[in-house]
Specification:
Chain A has 9 helices and no strands. Chain A has helices at 3-14, 20-30, 34-50, 62-70, 81-89, 93-115, 135-145, 149-152, 155-164. The radius of gyration of chain A is 46 Å and the shape is flat. Chain A starts with a helix and ends with a helix. Chain B is globular. Classes of the chains: A mainly alpha (165), B mainly alpha (183). The A-B interface holds A 8, 11-12, 15, 17, 42-43, 45-47, 49-59, 62-63, 65-67, 69-70, 73-78 and B 13, 15, 17, 20-21, 24-25, 28-29, 31-33, 36-37, 42, 46, 49-50, 53-54, 57-62, 100, 104, 116, 119-120, 123-124, 127, 138, 141-143, 147-148, 163, 166-167, 170, 173-174, 177, 182-183.
């Protein structure tokens, strides 16, 4: 391992958190590398310096004041999703969410309807062919004027035509 | 036999206030120290550590006994400290004088006491100058004697991230102290 890798591991090593293999490699390296040995000593010194800001016990009366406050604490059980929604904006949140939801649905429906192609007006529709009193009369005329009877009629019409004749 | 934290929490959930009291006695100094070292403000540390315990009681039902109680309580304290720092930066508040610096003097000689106070001030400033995540990790390691695994669990991050935070924190502290010509 090179010095860079060793230095990165030294902090873990001085905390006693290095693996056995890492610790062995570090020990072997710092035995021959003055620079890394110095880095190790420096880390121990820094740790020592930090200890100057020693531990301070909790102030007198801490427990008494805390337990007095604790008497007024209401425990909050695990919340359901409905409770979580309710807590977001007060007790009327569910009604609000329902109203907002309905509004969104209505808006979506409106958008879908508007996006559809417009209906054609009656004046734009081609006029239907006039139908004579007998529905078979037109069919008969068409058949007579054509070269091929089969070109203009369906099988059903042929049958009807046959009956008509 | 000493009851485990998990057993005490179970009793807490059933409304046993004596179990809560035992938890407070067990963790009050540790949590106070953590908040104090993190916030560097004696008075606010007192409020925040009390609030930590009140939340333990309030949310006792949410604690899952398969997780470490220690990590859970530190996570609560950590979140409260973060909120406090956010509020402090928003309102540009500075911590009040620290009574702990002046009350805890183990040195008989005035020179030694002064030297210690001065050193304590420098270290406090160096720790305070660290980025939030590095400060948390180093405070947990140096002042709470927590293992890397416990720190990872309390900070909700990987073991590798903890190693990196502590390494960087030490490098930064060293640099700050060298700049102050004490290292």
């Amino acid at each position: 391992m090179n010095c860079e890798k060793i230095k990165a591991l030294l902090s873990v090593y001085v905390d006693g958190e290095a693996t056995e293999k890492e610790a062995r490699l570090i020990r072997e390296h710092i035995a021959v590398c003055a620079d890394c040995k110095q880095e190790e000593q420096s880390l121990y010194r820094t740790s020592e310096m930090l200890k100057h800001w020693g531990n301070t016990p909790a102030p007198d009366g801490f427990c008494e004041a805390l337990l007095a406050k604790a008497e007024n604490v209401t425990r909050r059980p695990r919340r359901s999703i409905i409770d979580a929604v309710r807590s977001l904006a007060g007790p009327r949140a569910i009604i609000r969410v329902a109203v907002y939801g309905a509004t969104v649905v209505l808006l979506c429906v409106a958008v879908i309807l508007l996006a559809r192609p417009p209906l054609r007006r009656a004046s734009m529709v081609e006029p239907l062919p006039t139908i004579s009193e007998s529905p078979l009369q037109n069919l008969d005329e068409t058949a007579q004027g054509s070269e091929s009877f089969l070109e203009y009629t369906t099988m059903a019409e042929i049958k009807v035509k046959g009956l008509w004749k | 036999m000493r009851a485990s934290d998990e057993d005490l929490m179970k009793r807490c959930r059933e409304g046993d206030m004596s179990a809560f009291e035992l938890i407070v006695l067990r963790y009050k100094d540790a949590i106070f120290n953590f908040t104090y070292h993190f916030l560097a403000d004696y008075h606010r540390a007192q409020d925040i550590s009390q609030e930590t315990f009140l939340r333990v009681l309030r949310y006792a039902d949410r604690y899952k006994s398969r997780n470490s109680f220690k990590s859970w309580i530190y996570r609560i304290a950590t979140n409260l400290c973060k909120n406090e720092l956010r509020d402090r930066s928003r309102h540009k508040e500075l911590p009040l004088d620290d009574p702990a610096v002046y009350t805890e003097s183990r040195y008989t000689s005035p020179d030694k006491a002064y030297e210690n106070e001065e050193m304590q001030r420098l270290v406090r400033e160096a720790v305070n100058a660290l980025p939030e995540d590095q400060r948390m990790a180093i405070v947990m390691r140096e002042y709470q004697d927590m293992s890397y695994e416990e720190i990872a669990s309390a900070l909700n991050c990987s073991l590798g991230a903890v190693k990196s935070k502590i390494y960087r924190a030490r490098q930064n502290i060293k640099r700050i102290l060298i700049e102050a010509e004490v290292s």
